[in-house]
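Marked as duplicate of an earlier ticket. Keeping the data here for the record.
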Amino acid sequence: MAEVWERVLQYVREHPGRAIGTTVGLLFGVCLISLGLWKTLILGTATFLGYYIGKWIDDEGRGIRDFLEEKLPGRPDFR
């Protein structure tokens, strides 16, 4: 069994894009079958937004209020 996992890890190291794409496709398919189209799309959108906001906070080193003020100009102060 350890040999199988070693081969899988070697494949992932050599082809990370294919491995990630396959995993995302598999998860999307499972969600589509178990949740339905619209719930899957809402889940995907929420996941993307969470990733985007988290990446922005990591890269910029600022908080969620700064994010909202930058992305929603002209809105009331979020403080």
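See parent ticket for discussion. The mean pLDDT is 84.
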